Amino acid sequence: MNLSGSKNRLVAITKELSKRWDETKNHWRDAKSQEFEQRYMTELFANVDKTINVMDKLNELLTKVRKDCE
């Protein structure tokens, strides 16, 4: 299980999505855009941040388990 690689991929994909969303907001500036951002994008980015933290903790735990089994 390679959590580090998966985490790095998630971070990169999220950065790309954020960049694309910023570009989209330059052209889509109505109330629906704001609603979409608040309803979906803000929640998505917050959940990705939480997931990254959990992946870090899980990676620490797996490292400890591996060391304890040696």
Question: Would you mind describing this structure in some detail?
Answer:
By secondary structure, the protein is mostly helical. The model has no long low-confidence stretch (mean pLDDT 95).
Q: In terms of topology, how is this protein built?
A:
Elements: H1 3-25, H2 31-69
Helix pairs in contact: 1-2
Strand content: under 5%
* Oligomerization state: single chain
* Count of domains: 1
Query: What integer is the average pLDDT?
Result: 95
What's the main sheet like?
Answer: none
Weakly predicted, low-confidence segments = none
Features:
70 residues; mainly alpha; 2 helices; 89% helix
Quick recap:
The protein is mostly helical. It is built from 2 helices and no strands.
